[in-house]
Specification:
Blueprint: E1 2-7, H1 15-25, E2 29-33, H2 44-48, E3 53-57, E4 65-69, E5 75-79, E6 92-97, E7 100-106, H3 116-137, E8 142-147, H4 171-181, E9 186-187, H5 188-192, E10 201-202, H6 208-211, E11 214-215, E12 218-222, H7 224-227, E13 230-235, E14 251-255
Parallel strand pairs: 1-2, 7-8
Antiparallel strand pairs: 1-14, 2-4, 3-4, 5-6, 6-7, 8-12, 9-12, 10-11, 13-14
Helix pairs in contact: 3-4
Length: 257
Amino acid sequence: MKIATYNVNGVNGRLPVLLRWLEQAQPDVVALQELKAPDEKFPAEPIRQLGYEVIWHGQSRWNGVAMLSRIGEIHETRRGLPGDPDPAQSRYIEAAINGILFAGLYLPNGNPRPGPKFDYKLAWFERLIEHAAQLLASGLPVVLMGDFNVMPTELDVYKPERWLDDALFAPETRAAWFRLVEQGWTDALRAMHPDETIYTFWDYFRNAFARDAGLRIDHFLLSPSLKDRLLAAEVDREPRGWEKTSDHTPVWIELAD
């Protein structure tokens, strides 16, 4: 089973890129983030024409998450985190597909720090940590995937000394990440590439992609029952070089049946 996560940075504006990548990579399950489209503007039909079922949780101009499957029905179990005081922000979608529970998320950026946006990020992270603990307690096989907007270590950020005050690399953000992982989750990319510098995002400015000045902010976390089924975890860098593409690139894992 090939599972992917992809922050598309505007699903309608990047639709040719998304469809090209889906045809080329043929992932079985996909989580999309940053749709930047209300529900009625989501391009479901072109995606369905490629053989995918799809559910989505949209929002005009900002945020938005979706889940795609070509290996079975999508049984939606949740949209939004429990206790979310601002349900208008479309950042979380959860569904059972082919015996696994998949959660696709778009964690808040949090900049500028300090300030209300950073406070919102940390509060959202707390709700995610609480819900993730409940998912683990269920004993179900679970994949948490998406744009977490956190670089966990210095291997995950180009020139880390320049990011010390940024909300994505702040001590509070990284501490929240490790509290989440230490519940019992496996960081799939790091499990397969423990010592490599890995990036999943390159800014549009200052020729960042050509210079490989990137960040690793798109992640897969696996529940304990899936850890031994992990066969591969990779970053598909090619789409980041296409015309009119996202500033993120797809990340994928492969699980044994």
